[in-house]
Amino acid sequence: MLIGSLTFIQSELTSRPSSxxxxxxxxxxxxxxxxxxxxxxxxxxxxxxxxxxxxxxxxIVSARRSPEVxxxxxxxxxxxxxxxxxxxxxxxxxxxxxxxxxxxxLPFHLCDITAFLAGYALLSRRSWAQELTYYWxxxxxxxxxxxxxxxxxxxxxTFFTFxxxxxxxxxxxxxxxxxxxxxxxxxxxxxxxRAFVCVNLYLLVAGILNATLGTNFGFVAHPPxxxxxxxxxxxWPVYLIWFEVIGWILFTLLTLPWLRKNPTIGGIAS
Length: 270
Prior knowledge:
Strand content: under 5%
Structural class: mainly alpha
Radius of gyration: 19 Å
Low-confidence stretches: 1-33, 261-270
Number of domains: 1
């Protein structure tokens, strides 16, 4: 049903003119704003990932070793950078005078929503928010760090804000189980099922927004212009079906650390 709905929505987009990625996003800009186009697995990409994981590890390890002092500080830092992600991302885009498209102006990508959700989960400790942050943050946002949908390379401000935004989410997704002691609900399949249903609701809403605004939230309308993992999942709408399959597999795999062998029945239980 979801794929059928998205197929109908995509048909509404076929008449919309498309523009070249470089022409739209690397058009003449202020001299201090123009930088190299971002390349996946470039030295700047790998350096940013290494630094991000190092800082994230320091925060989490410190929080576990010092629950009274370091843990509240780590929680505050992660929550701050999650809840302000939209603000500092927009500031970064404002440093270029060329028009910024709606995809980068409105906070409706999955990682935008997950950032707000992660900040709320850290401060409120509501189980439903922790659950969605954990599954969405590690299944989706972590992949965004592997093949970032990023236009400008170091030292453009959007380069810094992209990695800050996404590492804040991933750090929060790990902080919640490792420092706050959150665990998936029982039976074990309830958490993945809820995360799967909610992400499909997001994709449906994203498809409606895309048809209305001509955007590409959730990459539902078409793959990102820059190279990504989606390029290996086939053309539209085939890759949307793979979204479903891979999403369920990842949500299930993320639950495995909490599965234990039940000696009574000899099976796997929560």
